[in-house]
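Lab meeting minutes (informal)
Scribe: AK
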Amino acid sequence: MDTKILAFVTAVPLALSGWATANAQEEEQAPPYVTPVDTFACDYNEGKGPADLKQAISRLAPPDLPYAHELAWHDGNGHSHVQAALLGPSITLPIRAGKLRLGTWQQVVAINHDNGPRKRSIEVTIIGVV
């Protein structure tokens, strides 16, 4: 088992698929992508899908509603916590024959739901059997 931390500043959804495949040591593995931040989410989607997904999530949890978090902390990101919770903080995907098993156009993405760019990290643990 090998764990790496990917650190970056969020601005747009990030494609992470190639990183896991390039860092796999064994032919068949399952890398869980996990983010320890509750305004950030991991998912997989096609091409421009992350932008569409962000729009859809924003319609489900719009920024202008009165969230309890916002009423308590007044930090403008109550919606961010709800949006990220709808997608979740982690996904697990298989690597078979040394390749990440996604659909033709799918990619692993990290989506920042916070109200501005933030320094974030994603933990990728590659678990495998030889």
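Next up, CB showed the second protein from the same session:
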Amino acid sequence: MNVMDRIKEIERRIQTMNRLLLNARRTYTLGLHHAQHEPPAGEDQIAHASQHLAAGSDVIKLDDLAAPDDTTDLDALITRHGLCPKLPNDVLKYLDGLGAWSVPAGGGGGSDPWSTKKLSSDFSTTSGTPVDVTGLNFTPAANKIYAIEGTLLLRTSNASYGVRIGSVQPSGLEDGVIAYGVATAAGSTSLFNVGAIASEWVHLLTALADAVNSWPAWLKAVLVVGATPAGDFQIRVRSETNGIEVFVKKGSYLRYREI
């Protein structure tokens, strides 16, 4: 055998050894199997292990193996294929392109864009001049635009005298509109719209349908806030006649959000 033939033989043997080493690496995770189950007498261990690989005569399926440890060793990464990470037990999350469980922007992880103020107890007054309804207010921030809405449960102690609702706005607004709707004594709707900014908007209501039940009032507004606002958006109420008790009942709410 000449020198060139010897070199080729050495290269062939090196390639054979490389293939054997590659198979050994691929079967590394079967080490426990080989430790506990010796191959048949006379059979090479690596050759035996290859029977359990893809296209082998005794393939071991992934779902036939024992449950994996609670680790991230096999998780898919941006640099390699892998398995799905452990589920987060949260129906609002999805698996993003970096392998993390994430909440979509603007999606539900339960993030409500509205901030809500509600009454946990009845508010009452006998005043014939407007008074603040405690808790139904918020402080607008500079250079923001707000959508506002709310529903009030109104009641009076005397059906001949109604509840007058309104609101006071912060100073420093650039623009704003508001609309109120209130049930009247006839059970219809009395609607009062204001299209210009005013320091206070008041709905002039005469009476409710009865003095036994709560009657609805609702409002919608948009505030365009300037650079230097001062004060709150505040729901106010007064009795039609001084001395007659009127109520804003528990469960009434005001909510607002930036738009």
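CB comment: DSSP finds three helices and 14 strands in the chain.
No objections, moving on.
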